[in-house]
Amino acid sequence: MRHSALLLPAALLALWAAPAAAQTQTEPPADQVEDVTIIARPLREAVQSFVEEVGVSRREQNLARWDRRVCVGVVNMTPRYAQALADQVSGVAMVIGLNAGEPGCRPNILILADSNGDALAQALVAEDPQVFRPDIGNTNLGQDALAHFQTSGAPVRWWQVTYMRTSQFGVTASRIRESHEQGLGHVIIILDTSRIGSVSFASLADYISMVALAQVDARLDANGYDSVFNLFNEGADRTQRMTDWDLAYLQALYAMRGDAASPDRQQREMAWHLRRNLEAAAAARDAAEAEAAAQPATETPPAVEAEGPAPTVEPVPPEPATPPQT
């Protein structure tokens, strides 16, 4: 419903060929037990740290975010999986208050699958460098970050271009507020199918939703947090989905005002919103569990033996863990 088919130059299309190769994980010996010390941090401190580590912006700028509408385009993926991926990103966008583009909209979030992410990134930058680093200053993370985008070897990599817009509140600059805020202009995401491995497709879609809707540090280390950002870490759960922390982060980003006078002030505002969202999610979960526990137990009806032979059920082939390419 929200999938846009795009036509790219034939030279780039020729790069997309091989299917994903499954990654192997090394399991520790069964009799080896490591000493683990768990130190619980206060929620306020953990939330502030999470906000500081996840987001990244350019030269003391505030974090950018989408203004009202996103349109997701997916390239080089079979229609079934492309549609599911576009719908998931659009669905998360709507949860945090954005609108999703209708069929045929011009994509501002472009997702490309390829068996060689480095080669595709380098070809795209070489073909149209203005798409990645426009002449207008402070619209991207700079040359070092662009080099990392082209050579990181990451299973998922992304590049975001921002722009400055007038604050939606229309106020003049002050000690605590700016007269402008940062907006996301377009995002390019590359999925390296040779490196994605055996992650579940739903988990991959959640991960992509996060980097499509927020400025996320490509070098982020989310160890210690309950987050889908750990999906590709060594030994991580390959079925990890978006968590309360992840959704609360996005909700906080889009709930706060974007015209804070400094990144530090913006981070404090985000942390306040994030903490409230986490507390609300925990309260709702506790209430649901209490309601379920209060329900009277129901007796299981006795089994009814069927007459005649049992029906034969044909096995259904499992779906691939990574999206097949076209």
User: From the helix content, strand content and strand pairing, which structural class follows?
Assistant: alpha/beta
- Overall 3D form: globular
In DSSP terms (H or I, runs of 4 or more residues), the helix count works out at 10
Can you write the helix and strand succession as a string? HHEEHEEHHHEEHHHH
Strand order of the largest sheet: 2-4-6-5
Tell me what portion of residues adopts beta-strand conformation.
5-15%
Tally of DSSP β-strands: 6
Distance between the termini: 19 Å
| Biggest sheet layout | 4 strands, mixed
Helical content class: 25-40%
Mean pLDDT across the residues is 80
Unreliable sequence segments:
1-39, 304-321
What integer value in Å does the Rg equal? 23 Å
Notable features of this structure?
disordered N terminus; 36% helix; alpha/beta; 326 residues
Walk me through this protein's architecture:
Helix content is 36%, strand content 12%. The chain has ten helices and six strands. The protein starts with 9 loop residues before the first helix and ends in a 32-residue tail after the last helix. The protein has helices at 10-13, 43-54, 79-95, 117-127, 129-132, 143-151, 193-196, 201-213, 244-255, 263-294; strands at 69-70, 72-75, 99-100, 109-114, 156-166, 180-192. Residues 1-39 and 304-321 have low confidence and may be disordered. Helix 9 packs across helix 10 (263-294). The longest helix is centred in the last third of the chain and has 32 residues, at 263-294. Strands 2-4-6-5 form a four-stranded mixed β-sheet, sandwiched between helices. Strands 1-3 form a two-stranded parallel ribbon. It has 326 residues and is α/β, with parallel strands linked by helices.
